[in-house]
């Protein structure tokens, strides 16, 4: 056979190849026939056939059976167990690292699918043999009414005018019964025919009934997919179902706050997703606006409010519409720490907090030495306060995107290089940065994986009191030789509001810097948490 190999080609392939040689009179090009012939003779295809035949011949025997089919759960348990250990041996560290590798997880996931025989085709249900073809099948479903809502919504079908099940909430009473599905037609409720009634009429019947509720339903043709999606998102807006005029059923809504992580269990409906709040004990999902719906709302709101006159330069940063961000848990890796980024208005106290953190453990917490094009002053050492480089060199490096942030002050350039941040991270230290807020977008990359803490000022009154009591030095004054003026305090509050407006969807945490000791202890707790706990990050960072 081809290539003179002694391999036993599959008879089916050989037959195909022979008929291909006889098919030269078919209306196809030489190129097409050549392609097919090459494909049928290719080693890869034959190897695939070989594997297929082996699987088929082994599949029928009971020789192999899985020891377990939930290895991914075991991995999660082991990671959780390891993370809680105060000290890890080298072996544990290696295991911890290996178990997080996407390839290992992919392999175990495939193993579980095979072990659970997830690949078997799902056959349609066979109708009961005695059913008359013309007669509609009905099912009688009985649910016991409790304080818990039914977990399903109804609507009038536009085409038929009949009452149908519009939605079944994941984990709700209707869903758990396994008997009620989207599209089922409601014929009777508690022996009352609902033909010609409105969804509101049916709702009244339900509200007025007690104990067991009996539904007579005509099943929908196809069953809705019962599988839960695994998607988790972080919400970037507050939502309150009671004040949403468009939600199809207010009682079925799920309220959430900006920053909450939601488990999206169903995206079947283009406008209304079903979700649970991560960590909630309530298994019943609730309705939330889909990304598409929320984006439309935001665009509409913006066209209503934006008069264009007070739009500021960095408003383009808001062009991106923040609704939901897909997130996943990132497990800390021993020896490789996420940089901690302090963001806030000039003068709010970021340097003070950074200084205190470094003072606690200067070997652990490090900040990169900035670069500058300004001439070295007497007594200064290159690489200590700054790396001194020429303006041309710095401009070239800025052009080549080597700086994570840069700016000009009094005719000289200043900046932090990406390389110096990487060097600290790779040396096993915790890198602390307090860049200008516009650098956030450049910093928030899957490579750096920063943990972003927003340093927020307290109210104007508390800001003034705490700073004046501490004889705080104004950072607006070049020599730091005086306190803050009232105007500068106002500026801190104003810039902070602007930073929040533009970037709050990037913040992992907010620390209010009122009492310095309290703010610092909150920062320290956050720094420890980043080192030890699995935390939610953009899903793309863990893929
Ligand atoms: N919570 C606080 N209570 C009292 N004083 C504070 C507090 N936080 C910071 N300060 C003081 O305020 C002054 C300015 O703080 P700091 O230098 O940290 O500001 P900054 O945010 O780094 O400003 P810039 O970004 O402009 O450099 C310092 O004198 C600092 O000690």
Automatic annotation (TrEMBL):
Domain Guanylate kinase-like as annotated: residue spans: 337-528
CDD domains linked: GMPK, PDZ_MPP3-MPP4-MPP7-like, SH3_MPP
SH3 domain segment(s): 228-298
Chief subcellular location: other
SMART domains: GuKc (SM00072), L27 (SM00569), PDZ (SM00228), SH3 (SM00326)
Lineage top rank: taxon: Eukaryota
Keywords in alphabetical order: Cell junction, Membrane, Repeat, SH3 domain
Spans traversing the lipid bilayer: none
GO cellular component, one term: membrane
Domain PDZ: 140-221
Subcellular localization(s) per the UniProt record: Cell junction; Membrane
Boundaries of every L27 domain copy: 9-63, 68-122
Gene3D superfamilies: 2.30.42.10, L27 domain (1.10.287.650), P-loop containing nucleotide triphosphate hydrolases (3.40.50.300), SH3 Domains (2.30.30.40)
PANTHER family reported in the protein's UniProt record: MEMBRANE-ASSOCIATED GUANYLATE KINASE MAGUK
Family to which the UniProt record says this protein belongs: Belongs to the MAGUK family.
Protein name listed in UniProt: MAGUK p55 subfamily member 7
Upper taxonomic lineage: Eukaryota, Metazoa, Ecdysozoa, Arthropoda, Hexapoda
């Amino acid at each position: 056979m081809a290539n003179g190999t002694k391999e036993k080609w599959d008879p089916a392939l050989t037959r195909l190849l022979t008929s291909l040689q006889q098919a030269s009179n078919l209306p196809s090009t030489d190129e097409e026939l050549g392609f097919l012939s090459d494909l049928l003779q290719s080693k890869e295809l034959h190897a695939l056939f070989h594997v297929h035949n082996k699987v088929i011949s082994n599949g029928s025997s009971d020789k192999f059976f899985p020891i377990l089919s939930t290895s991914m759960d075991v991995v999660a348990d082991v990671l959780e167990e390891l993370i809680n250990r105060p000290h890890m041996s080298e072996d544990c560290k290696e295991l911890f690292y290996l178990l997080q590798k996407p390839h290992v997880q992919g392999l175990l996931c495939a193993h579980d699918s095979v072990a659970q025989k997830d690949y078997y085709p799902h056959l349609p249900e066979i109708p009961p043999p005695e059913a008359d073809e013309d007669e509609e099948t009905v099912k009688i479903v009985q649910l016991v009414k409790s304080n818990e809502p039914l977990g399903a919504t109804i609507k009038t079908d536009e085409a038929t005018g009949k009452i149908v099940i519009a939605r079944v909430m994941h984990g709700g009473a209707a869903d758990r019964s396994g008997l009620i599905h989207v599209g089922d037609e409601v014929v009777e409720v508690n022996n009352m025919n609902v033909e010609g009634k409105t969804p509101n009429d049916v709702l009244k019947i339900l509200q007025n009934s007690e104990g067991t509720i009996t539904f007579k339903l005509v099943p929908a043709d196809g069953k809705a997919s019962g599988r839960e999606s695994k998607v988790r998102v972080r919400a970037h807006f507050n939502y309150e179902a009671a004040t949403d005029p468009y939600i199809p059923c207010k009682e079925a809504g799920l309220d959430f706050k900006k920053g909450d992580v939601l488990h999206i269990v169903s995206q079947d409906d283009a406008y209304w997703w079903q979700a649970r709040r991560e960590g909630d004990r309530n298994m019943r999902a609730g309705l939330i606006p889909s990304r598409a719906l929320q984006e439309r709302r935001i665009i509409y709101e913006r066209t209503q409010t934006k008069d264009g006159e007070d739009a500021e330069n960095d408003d383009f940063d808001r062009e991106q519409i923040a609704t939901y961000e897909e997130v996943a848990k990132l497990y800390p890796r021993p020896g490789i720490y996420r940089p901690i980024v302090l963001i806030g208005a000039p003068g709010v106290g970021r340097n003070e907090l950074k200084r205190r953190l470094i003072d606690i453990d200067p070997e652990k917490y490090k900040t990169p030495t900035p670069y500058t094009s300004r001439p070295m002053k007497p007594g200064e050492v290159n690489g200590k306060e700054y790396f001194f480089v020429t303006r041309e060199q710095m401009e070239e490096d800025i052009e080549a995107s080597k700086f994570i942030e840069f700016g000009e002050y009094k005719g000289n350039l200043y900046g932090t290089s990406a390389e110096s941040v990487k060097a600290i991270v790779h040396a096993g230290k915790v890198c602390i940065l307090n860049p200008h807020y516009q650098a956030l977008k450049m910093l928030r990359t899957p490579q750096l994986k920063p943990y972003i803490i927003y340093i927020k000022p307290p109210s104007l009154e508390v800001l003034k009191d705490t700073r004046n009591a501490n004889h705080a030095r104004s950072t607006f004054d070049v020599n730091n030789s005086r306190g803050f003026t009232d105007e500068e305090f106002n500026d801190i509050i104003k810039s902070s509001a602007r930073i929040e407006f533009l970037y709050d969807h990037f913040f992992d945490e907010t620390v209010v810097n009122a009492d310095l000791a309290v703010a610092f202890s909150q920062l320290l707790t956050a720094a420890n948490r980043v080192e030890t706990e699995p935390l939610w990050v953009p899903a793309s960072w863990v893929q």
